[in-house]
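Sample intake — EGFL6 protein
Collected from: Geococcyx californianus
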Amino acid sequence: AICRHDCKYGECTGPNKCKCFPGFTGKTCNQDLNECGLKPRPCEHRCMNTHGSYKCYCLNGYMLMPNGTCASSRTCAMVNCQYGCEEVKGEVQCLCPSGGLQLGLNGKTCIDIDECSTGKAMCSYNRRCINTFGSYYCKCQLGYELKYVSGHYDCVDANECVTNTHRCNPHAECLNTEGSFKCKCKQGYRGSGFSCS
């Protein structure tokens, strides 16, 4: 099975046929599936799509139960939480639907934690961190591309000379380097490689 464009979040099961991992869609499994738009809806009240998944939360005045349903709560209604609440030992606490969100100073609304700038993100050396509302994801560093290599996905050097994504002068040779490329003017020409005369 060979997939010419790779299956970004999935497996190649036949000639240019991708079987996507749960939470992803598209011909090359490169798009996040918005589970919140599915019928029937996965959440009783509100749904927040995340990268490769989703989170449920309740309207104000309701409490998120362990089975994912929303139960009416008079105490919750009085507290006026943005994303529903839970009762712990008789005390009402507002909830945030994701570990990447934290309660604001008012204790009712949720604000985003930028995992990329706080250093909480766990991205390998060849990936860069992209912050999202309530989460983050790791994207290949510039000059690298995601490929399925020996049973798992990894960021491998993109050969700009082969993919023709370099900016070398027509009178220059393209030389691939780790994460980048170099241009060298051909014999009989002088210059930077980006401009040759």
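Post-analysis note: The chain is about 5% helix and 40% strand.
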